[in-house]
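Supplementary Data S3. Sequence and structure tokens for construct A.
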Amino acid sequence: MTRFAFVIHPMDKFDVARKYPIAQYLPEGVVEAALRRKRPSVISKITGIVSRTGETTEGWFIGCPLTPRQMVDRLPTEEVYHRIVQCAEIAAKEGAQLIGLGAFTSVVGDGGITIRKRSPIAVTTGNSYTVATAIQGTLKACALLDMDVSQSTLAVVGATGSIGRTCAKILSQSFGRTLLIGRDFEKTSLVAAEIPGSEASVNLQDISQADAVVTVTSAEKEVIVPEFLKPGAVVCDVARPRDVSVRVAKERKDVLVIEGGIIKVPGDVNFNFNFGFPGNTAYACMSETIMLALEGNPALFDFTLGKDVSVEQVEQISALAEKHGFDLADFRAFEEVVDQQAIARARKARITSPTVARSR
């Protein structure tokens, strides 16, 4: 049996408060100062994973006690690298042969390359399967709204990142028009040059033209607000923390928001840790790590590293997911299951909205 580990970390002080309730009453900076003094540790053991091929695996969640703000803005990159490598060292001692980098640990620096050089075990960011499932989820949601994607506009927010760029490359082949939204116009234009017929923009409000939006920034705050969205639009939020404002759920019942990359894991899985999902479901990045362990081929363990994800990697990891029995879970948004009423409202908005009608 090949065993794995996966790095998790708190998103903010309220995540910390789940274990230390006093944290919710303290300033963010005080909580972060306390986290900086903590060492990584084993959070839980993961059991019960069984591939449809009959292969099994088990693993561990390893907690890295840093927030996104610390990893990206507040601490030296070398210090963050050191903490993540400590996670890998702990995983190796537990018996893991590979480790997946969750959330912002996959964003820091060069996307896992330096971590791998210093790690005693293999490393993957999980981004290949995150891309694959974002694409699958977006197209499935569009189909539920009876959207003819060949006559529709796609917007990718965070298009210069590894996930956004590859989502745009693949999805643009299905959509009639593609808008690429980034923070830097020059960088976004370079991505647009790689994707025939796409258009670059740094204006988030341009997503008001889009029938489908894939958003995958590392903004650390909500960037998609109700005023930006077209009636009947599909919004696939792949970012952690989320890009879509909770105001959208309250004020725009006419759009369909889904969280990207939520997966059914095969077997009677027990994560022994509550990260807000029903049993047997996990993020795509976790799932990539798990399926690589199930495959058991050391040549594949360092599957996704760096800032680029190739179309070939997406195709290969999709094939492994099919082989081992991983599939999209029920759609979720804002910690709740997306019900049929939400789908029906968005579908109706597409039919009745003059804006949508004119775009056909």
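Construct B, processed identically:
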Amino acid sequence: MISIIDTSDIFDREKAVEDNMDCVFSPDDLDRLPQTSAMVTNSHTATINAHEIAIITGTEAARTALFAKMIAATLLCGGSYPFAQGMKCHIDNAKVLWIDAVNSLHDTAQLARDMKQLFNADGKHFKIVALTALGSEQMYYKSVKSVLNTTINDFNPNLIIINDLDNLFPLVTLGGANGFVDYLRNYVSTSEAAVCAIGHNLIGKVKKTTGYVGEILYPLASIVYRVSERSKKESAITRVSCYKTFRQCPRDFAFTINDYNFPEQVNNEAPKSTDNTLNTSQ
């Protein structure tokens, strides 16, 4: 079994505090306590917070990646997501890094086209790492380490989306997974950033197909969303619900896929009438 993390680990970042005792505080230290800020809200309730890790879970056919696509688009448009009532961005000039360990290079290229055409995304604000383009040879793990480390350090994204945890490092050891998770936690704690990871079958007993990274990351997540599809028809309704959070739980909402291949919110489990006119004006 091959480990992605070894004694010469390149996934290194500075710790969140300068002095070791700075990790000890009380309510009397309010002036120096770090604060979490909302990056994306839905109906005035935080959906994605800076300095935190979020997980989107559901079956492989539950459109989990589409919900992540909605979050990414909200940040890139810099205002209100045009296909959902109340979904808003609260950070200026946000940068999104999409790490795709599932789809082909051509599929991820289409994602870049969609973000460019519909939300005016450019290379300064949106980058994709198509890990499947690296192949499956033994050097894959070393290549992933190098690509992710270089891209994250150079790009400094506000949101890292991982699609998905099941396939990110299929042969990683427990020690390697711990090293990568520690790297992600350190990154969000020292940057105005968040991680949103897709992990299938992460609710309840974690299945082996999820891999060590998912097993470790799941209990550390500040919020977990559960995505479920009501039918397999073309007009299938997908419901998103908050399964776990440390704060106020965002309200459930449902969406279907519109003509732009993006999630569009529906009310009362029925598609709302729309003229499909895209308006991203803020």
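The two ends are 50 Å apart (CA to CA). Residues 35-266 form a domain with the Rossmann fold fold (CATH 3.40.50.300).
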